[in-house]
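Reopening this ticket.

The earlier resolution said the output was attached, but the attachment link was broken on my side. Pasting everything inline this time so it's all in one place.
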Amino acid sequence: MKSKTTLVLLLFSWCPFLLFGKELKKITRESNIPGFIETYYILKSDTSVRQGPYKLEVLGKLVVEGNYKAGRRDSTWIQYNLEGIVRTKGWFKMGKRADLWEFFNDAGHLEQKIDFSTGEVLYYQTLFAKHPFRVISGRDTLLTVLDRPPLYVGGTSRLNDDISSEIMLPLHKADEKVTGTVFLRFTIDSLGKTYDHHLLRGIGNACNEEAIRVIKIIPNEWLPGILNGKPVNVEYILPIIFDKNTKSPELF
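Inline output:
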């Protein structure tokens, strides 16, 4: 019995360099962004295919860990902030979210819990629970409080992160940064996709264009508004603050 146990341990000690009969090669890659280092494994037989453990470190701290199977994200993936607090935790199956996912804010407080296998939202936080939204049905509109307002997948904290990671603070004449709040309006349809992005109220110059550009390129991942138990098309207003004291604008 001891010899069999030893053999099993030896086999696992070869992993992930030899995983289920597939020989792997370890890759450590530094990003163009200083301090970002990825570590993952590829098949020696096909170097375009990732297989096995993955991790991303920023300034020496682990921020993402997960696993690849046949080149796709698989099993549990976890994202941390630089303080080591879990921000996102969930399961991938063949590259797509499946089963239970939890999303936390930067302090580690739960913002959303979603079962992606059933599409059920088990928990969410929002400031707009009693806020009336304009529901669009053909040419008709109805201003009403919804059963559930539209939600960005991952919550307000993730929306803020996604916007901040993309947006650039434009410069005005004499190299002065323009500050203020840009209000955007767009529609979130019954499938959770956005369209008809346009400016509601701006601050002029390049900030208006920058805000619209960014809201169009962040992940188009919304949970639709619900009225009378059914998903509906909803008009959504998003304010974005451009602040001269920060490198990136902040979501209001």
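Reporter confirms the inline version is readable. DSSP finds three helices and 19 strands in the chain. The two ends are 63 Å apart (CA to CA).
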